[in-house]
Design a protein that fits this description.
The chain is mainly α. The chain has 11 helices and no strands. Helix 6 (about 110-120) packs across helix 7 (about 125-135).
């Protein structure tokens, strides 16, 4: 008798969501331990505690599985960090954003995942592009939109909001996350994070904030 064909999982099913999560967590551990190339579907199934047949029901190959893990991480970043209260003081908003983003990137286990993406992006540029669009580009676009709203509200001067967003993010990361990325230093201390973000916020506001009561020489009403 022919083997029964496995049914595709129903995304609305809590059971299927739990199994998918189990597979993704097992794959995440293996990718971090062995790297993308060394991790096989057989090994992923073993690490996740599922049969190979069950694994293929959810993911056709390890590229699809790795892409799902990357997309989930980027979505988590967007939901937790790149959300803005437009009525809140801009200095408070940017300070929170800078600190939380640095902590997110410097968290335990975060850097190896990023290095894995970078390592395979040369031969799999489409995956690197998807990660960039879902992660860094998405963050820049979210902050750009926030800056544009603040310009309309008269809080910020008109400026190139996309470039300013990218520059602000980079200024928060250059002396915190970047040294970690190149193995120059370990995770930054809280004091270091606060100091770097404070300077990034003050520099941005000095350049773009509309200061009420400023003199005309400063370009303000």
């Amino acid at each position: 008798m022919a083997a029964q064909r496995l049914q595709k999982p129903d995304p609305a099913s809590g059971r299927d969501s739990k199994k998918r999560r189990q597979i993704m967590e097992g794959a995440r551990r293996l990718f971090l331990a062995q790297g993308f190339d060394a991790a096989s579907m057989n090994a992923i199934a073993q690490e996740a505690g599922v049969s190979k047949g069950t694994l293929y029901v959810y993911f056709e190959n390890k590229e699809e599985l790795f892409e799902a893990i990357v997309e989930e991480q980027c979505a988590e970043q967007a939901e937790q960090i790149f959300t803005f209260e437009t009525n809140e003081d801009i200095e408070v908003v940017l300070t929170r954003l800078g600190r939380e983003f640095v902590r997110f990137l410097c968290r335990p286990g975060g850097l190896p995942a990023l290095r894995t993406v970078i390592a395979i992006a040369v031969r799999m540029p489409e995956l690197g592009a998807k990660f960039y669009l879902a992660g860094p580009a998405r963050g820049i676009a979210s902050l750009k939109g926030y800056f544009e709203d603040q310009v309309k509200a008269g809080v910020l001067k008109p400026h190139d909001c996309e470039i300013a967003a990218a520059q602000f993010i980079e200024s928060c990361l250059s002396l915190t996350f970047r040294p970690m990325l190149y193995n120059f230093a370990g995770p930054p201390t809280e004091a270091r994070i606060e100091r770097v973000v404070e300077m990034a916020v003050h520099t941005f506001l000095a350049a773009y904030k509309v200061w009420r009561g400023a003199t005309s020489e400063q370009g303000e009403p």
